[in-house]
Amino acid sequence: MYRTPYVLDGRVFSPARPHRHDVLIAAVGLLGGVLLWLLGLRMQTGRLLDAPWTALIPLAVMAGAELLRRGAPRTALLAGTLALTADQFTPGNLATVLMYTDVMYAAVLYGPPTAARRIPVAAFLVTVAGTAALVARYRDAEALLVGILVALVVFVPALTGVSVRNHRDAAETARLRADQTALLAEMDRTQAVTAERARMARELHDLVANHLSAIAIHSTAALSLDTPETSRTALGVIRENSVDGLAEMRRLIGLLRTGAADPEPSSSPTLGSLDALVEQQRANAEAGGLTCVLEDTRDGREPLPAPVELAAYRIVQESLTNALKHAAPGPVTVRLGQAGRRLTVEVSSVLGDRPGPRAPGSGAGLVGMRERVALLGGEFEAGPVDGTWRVRAELPVDEGAVGS
Question: Which of 60-64, 158-162, 332-336, 358-362 has the lowest mean pLDDT?
Fold first, then answer.
């Protein structure tokens, strides 16, 4: 038998058997009705079927309807209405009437939304029409009293079912809204963690990659050439980069431990530090035949927003590191320019094969640079141009653009 799903404690059920509560209600109603019948307590006399046992038939049908009050509420209401109507032709049983009120209540509470809307209206119309008919026929207070009893049996249970259903639906809506809020909060938290991890990865890569690349190249050179002068020079460069890399790591670890809310540390490098960076890279790249040059054509050189200066510095740093790894002997030129409210950063190096040791690359540097530029709303390009490898970035220097 098909049974209409119902909601209980925030969960949807489609039971194959009657709910245990429904079985209990049906059993109590049936036993109570039988007890009233055994005691000879009748509700009316002089009916068409006046034999006492006839009242047991509507009672049994109504108890059966109670078994369907959740699984098939509309079927239960139809069977209950027929049983209540038949009960009016028998001596009657109070348990039959009381169980009908519960069947009416359950039909509104567990039935589909359309039934929940229509049943109360139909119950109200039946109550009004029945009361009006009785008053028009008998024209006494007893007819009005019967109309009130009809309302208590038919309309009031339906109205109660509407109220309980509305409260239940509101509670379910609130629960779903709370679940959605929790889900959105978890998504926001996950996105924040992912963004922070990406930022940390960029910082770690930008801070340490150039030092480790220099160490790898010079240690490989020392092992390959194996001359005292080469080994001494390589060890000096290795020591310098090791100390600088360790200092940078300590600074970043200290920043992470403090849990600073500022998206960029206050001690972030600026464009004013590019001279020292280029000088350091010049010393690192000398063994590979590279010469690093800085050309700054900006006018005035007024301070720029901190995110712009940090991004420009990291782009130059990563580009110099990539040149140290892959560029052929020749000049590595760093150019800075500003036209209007846009800062241009360009790093070019000789494209071609290079002799001697080379450090492997992972491609993460280009990805990190592209992400930094995209976050600031700028433009980025990297690739071969006229025999050189050129990295070029344009960054907006307006505070509004940076913060967007």
Answer: 358-362
Contacts of 232 (CB under 8 A, 6+ apart): none
Cβ neighbours of 66 (radius 10 Å): 27
CB contact at 8 A, 300 and 397? no
Prediction pTM value: 0.49
Side chain identity at 281, as an amino acid letter? Answer: Q
Of 193 and 318, which is predicted with more confidence? 318
List the chain domain ranges.
6-182, 270-404
More confident residue, 1 or 387: 387
Q: Residue 190 CB: number of other CB atoms within 10 A?
A: 10
**Residue recorded with tokens 């001596």:** 91
Tell me how far CA of residue 227 lies from CA of 211, 233, 358, in angstroms: 23, 10, 19
Percent of the chain with pLDDT over 70: 74
Q: Residue 277 and residue 317: Cα distance in Å, rounded?
A: 7
How far out from the chain centre does Cα 346 lie? 40
The third-level CATH classification (topology) of the domain covering 270-404 is Heat Shock Protein 90 (3.30.565)
